[in-house]
């Protein structure tokens, strides 16, 4: 009797475990489909003909008429899309370089050399990030105009680090605090200067945080809209966030297929980079936040 009861309990536990795993996979697949839905819809839309897209009787998730490449050709041949991409890359890479150049030594100094005031100063720097860009717009505009940088990519390269540096310093501080001082002190005993010890022993250990800073800084500079719209009006200097809407939205006429094509071509490489560095990116934000 006892053996039968134990067998029944074991079967119920096994059945419960199986249903738990099935429920988990169903939820994961559902979440993945919901997350991928906008991208899938954009991919379908970019190949649709106008007669297919604007007919409400047609299935929006399928091709009633044969797919076409006309709208992709329009994006590349009739707009300055490649110029927008080039400008975005220039601004993004410059912002990433400036952010790392300032954030790394600042975060190290606050975490290692500032004593008990370092954490307070780090929190104060992070609070700067919480200030809405709309409040800083007017003073930033005066600064950019005074320097004669209007209609130049340098205006964005100057302004964007004021947004990326505060959170990058706060994030990297958490990593530096999580690394034992003994590592760099041992390197200094072996004959390295402090700078050499940091370069050879500490920076490799904070690489996940550096990846998180790079991804954050580049994506912010790529999608920021307010400053890019206000400081630059010439097509030759526009970035993607401003150039694509102004080129493909003309009054009440929306070039939907070309807009969706631009979104797909921009999102696809970013998604690939995210997947390649996903583990380090998550480690960068979670470890930095917890240890900071």
Structure, explained:
It is a single chain. The protein has 292 residues and is mainly alpha-helical. Among the domains are: 32 residues; 162 residues, Orthogonal Bundle (MetI-like fold). 78% of the residues lie in helices and 1% in strands. A two-stranded antiparallel sheet has the order 1-2. Strand 1 and strand 2 form a beta hairpin. Helix 4 packs antiparallel against helix 5, helix 4 crosses helix 8 and helix 5 runs antiparallel to helix 8. It is flat and about 75 Å long. The termini are far apart. The C terminus is likely disordered.
Write the layout of secondary structure elements.
Blueprint: H1 2-46, H2 50-53, H3 70-77, H4 81-113, H5 117-129, H6 133-146, H7 153-159, H8 161-178, H9 181-189, H10 194-202, H11 207-223, H12 226-231, H13 240-248, E1 249-250, E2 253-254, H14 256-276, H15 278-291
Antiparallel strand pairs: 1-2
Q: From the 3D coordinates, which CATH architecture of one domain would you assign?
A: Orthogonal Bundle
Query: What structural class is derived from the secondary structure elements?
Result: mainly alpha
Regarding CATH, which class of one domain?
Mainly Alpha
Distance from N terminus to C terminus (CA atoms, Å) equals: 58 Å
Mean pLDDT: 84
Major sheet: arrangement of strands: 1-2
Order of helices and strands: HHHHHHHHHHHHHEEHH
Q: What is the quaternary state of this protein?
A: single chain
What is the number of helical segments per DSSP (H or I, 4+ residues)?
15
Which percent range describes the beta-strand content?
under 5%
Task: Tell the overall outline.
Answer: flat
Counting DSSP E segments of at least 2 residues, the number of strands comes to: 2
* CATH fold group of one domain: MetI-like fold
The rounded Rg comes to 25 Å
pLDDT < 50 stretches: 288-292
- Name given to the CATH homologous superfamily of one domain: MetI-like
Roughly what percent helix? over 70%
Give the biggest beta sheet. Answer: 2 strands, antiparallel
């Amino acid at each position: 009797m006892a053996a039968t009861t134990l067998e029944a309990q074991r079967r119920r536990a096994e059945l419960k475990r199986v249903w738990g795993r099935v429920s988990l996979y169903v939820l994961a697949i559902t979440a993945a489909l919901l997350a991928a839905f906008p991208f899938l819809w954009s991919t379908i839309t970019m190949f649709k003909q106008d007669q297919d897209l604007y007919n409400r009787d047609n299935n929006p998730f399928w091709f009633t008429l044969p797919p076409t490449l006309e709208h992709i050709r329009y994006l590349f041949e009739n707009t300055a899309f490649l110029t927008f991409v080039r400008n975005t890359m220039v601004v993004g890479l410059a912002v990433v370089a400036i952010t790392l150049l300032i954030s790394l030594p600042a975060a190290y100094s606050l975490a290692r050399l500032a004593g008990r005031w370092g954490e307070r100063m780090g929190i104060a720097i992070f609070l700067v990030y919480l200030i809405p860009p709309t409040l800083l717009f007017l003073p930033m505009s005066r600064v950019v105009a005074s320097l004669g940088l209007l209609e130049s990519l340098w205006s964005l390269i100057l302004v964007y680090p004021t947004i990326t540096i505060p959170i990058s310093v706060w994030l990297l501080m958490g990593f530096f605090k999580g690394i034992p001082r003994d590592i760099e002190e041992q390197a200094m005993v072996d004959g390295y200067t402090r700078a050499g010890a940091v370069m050879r022993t500490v920076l490799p250990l904070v690489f996940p945080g550096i990846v998180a800073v790079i991804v954050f800084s580049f994506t912010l500079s790529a999608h920021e809209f307010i400053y890019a719209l206000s400081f630059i009006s010439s097509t030759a200097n526009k970035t993607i966030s401003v150039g694509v809407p102004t080129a493909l939205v003309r009054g009440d006429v929306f070039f939907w297929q070309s807009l969706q094509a631009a979104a797909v071509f921009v999102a696809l490489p970013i998604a690939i980079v995210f997947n390649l560095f996903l583990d380090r990116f998550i480690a960068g934000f979670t470890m930095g936040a917890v240890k900071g």
